[in-house]
User: Fold RNA-dependent RNA polymerase from Reticulomyxa filosa.
Amino acid sequence: MVTKHPETKCDLELRPSMIKFHPTTQHFMFEVCRASSFSPLYLNRQIITLLEARSVETKATEAIVEIADDIFQKLNAMKQDVVIAKQQIKLRVWYFILFYFFFAKHVYIIYVHISTCYTYTDAET
Assistant:
């Protein structure tokens, strides 16, 4: 996995252990096979325990509880009214269609020319 660090002075910084072979400058390319994308998160007991153990701010936990309350209110409304249930289903279908056509279909294999920038520690020299 590669991420962009805001303070780096070059396009890509590699540790020596990441270099498996030494290509010529002409063939020094970096292939991006897949970009990051949205994935749902399920709020289960393990995640809640992790949030508590990592001392997540009270505002963040309050926001999570508010989101959960909102979801439960919508679910209860859907159980009581068929019209609301149909509206929610249509809304979810549109979210899926918009996500699929505007985000998921625009993942390409990208070849990026990388400027050489290696970092070595004293132990590796």
